[in-house]
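Duplicate of #3305? Posting structure anyway:
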């Protein structure tokens, strides 16, 4: 695209100055002229004067919201045929349906990547130039896309409801199991059964919390509440919580923590370690060891959780942190299975701390390495 060549006039209506600036930079890099408005009323006035080729419209604005702005633009001369793309931080079914009813042509969830914004604007502008026959085909595809997106949003809403509704009964199961374990008259066989119930309840709670935080991350709401954490005490607590599982699997739990305190969200860090230790125990062979180590170096605190299992093949070391992944590795193509959410949660939780997570070969086994910024 040659500098100075304008390929379209785009009206950006957003009450956030940073969002307007980012949209303007992304659009001008693609050769578009960005017309900026800070309120709904300014946007309507700018539309009447500037006659833009496309409108990028924020939904939540003080005074007149984006839905009302869109309805009014549709009633203006030329407004019925001008593409309107809604921008919103609210990824939910009600917002999506309101956007469609208001007359929106597209729906983008913030934060919007510059490349995605440019592609959507380009597609909207090309649609205006299509013949009536091609436009009908496009409208059919767009309706089908909207139906798929509605189903996705419905699934996300159902997941959120299930997660919140499951937390209380699962916690109650764990609490009642703890009460039974305190009964001195409980037989050894019954005690083992109750302990199994508690272990499975804790596993289910871990899954529920992972789902909840993955959902929060998708909405940009997962944020750490950092504090000074005694890392050795935290690791000891996590290992103690897995002691029964480890003994049942014939696995020893060991730790070597050379770090006093680390700055992190205590709950998120505990659950990262909980998931990694659980993963290691499930894949460690009988009469082997799961070891947790921590040390400082190069401006970071590195926590390593190692097992002597089948390991992870080189080509799968990135994919293993994706949701619902089954990884085949080792000489006998043994499969690292699971619910496919624990490692995905670990990646999200570590990254919101500004850290990284990776997996290395333990020769044998796998070593999951968490690197957190060292604030002290």
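Output from current build:
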């Amino acid at each position: 695209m040659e500098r100075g060549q304008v390929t379209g006039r785009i009206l950006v209506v957003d009450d956030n100055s940073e969002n307007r600036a980012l949209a303007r930079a992304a659009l001008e890099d693609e050769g578009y002229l960005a017309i900026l408005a800070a309120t709904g009323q300014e946007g309507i006035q700018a539309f009447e004067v500037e006659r833009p080729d496309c409108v990028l419209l924020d939904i939540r604005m003080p005074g007149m919201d984006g839905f009302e702005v869109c309805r009014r633009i549709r009633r203006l001369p030329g407004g019925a045929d001008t593409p309107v793309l809604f921008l919103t931080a609210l990824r939910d079914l009600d917002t999506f349906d309101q956007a469609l009813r208001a007359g929106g042509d597209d729906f983008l969830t913030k934060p919007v990547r510059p490349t995605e914004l440019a592609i959507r604007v380009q597609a909207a502008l090309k649609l205006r130039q299509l013949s009536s026959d091609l436009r009908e085909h496009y409208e059919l595809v767009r309706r089908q896309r909207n139906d798929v997106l509605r189903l996705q949003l419905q699934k996300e809403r159902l997941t959120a409801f299930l997660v919140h509704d499951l937390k209380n009964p699962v916690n109650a199961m764990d609490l009642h199991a703890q009460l039974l374990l305190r009964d001195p008259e409980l037989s050894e066989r019954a005690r083992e059964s109750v302990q199994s119930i508690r272990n499975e309840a804790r596993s289910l709670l871990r899954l529920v919390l992972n789902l909840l935080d993955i959902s929060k991350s998708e909405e940009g709401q997962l944020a750490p509440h950092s504090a000074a954490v005694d890392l050795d005490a935290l690791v000891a607590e996590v290992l103690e919580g897995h002691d029964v599982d480890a003994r049942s699997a014939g696995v020893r739990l060991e730790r070597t923590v050379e770090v006093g305190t680390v700055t992190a969200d205590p709950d998120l860090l505990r659950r990262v370690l909980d998931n990694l230790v659980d993963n290691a125990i499930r894949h460690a062979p009988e009469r082997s060891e799961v070891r947790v180590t921590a040390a400082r170096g190069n401006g970071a605190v590195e926590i390593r959780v190692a097992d002597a299992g089948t390991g992870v093949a080189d080509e799968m070391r990135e994919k293993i942190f994706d949701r619902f992944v089954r990884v085949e590795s080792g000489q006998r193509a043994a499969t690292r299975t699971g619910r496919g959410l624990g490692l995905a949660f670990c990646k999200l939780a570590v990254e919101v701390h500004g850290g990284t997570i990776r997996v290395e070969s333990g020769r044998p086994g796998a070593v999951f390495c968490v690197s957190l910024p060292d604030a002290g």
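Confirmed duplicate; merging threads. The CA atoms of residues 292 and 361 lie 15 Å apart. Residues 328-338 have pLDDT under 50 and may be disordered.
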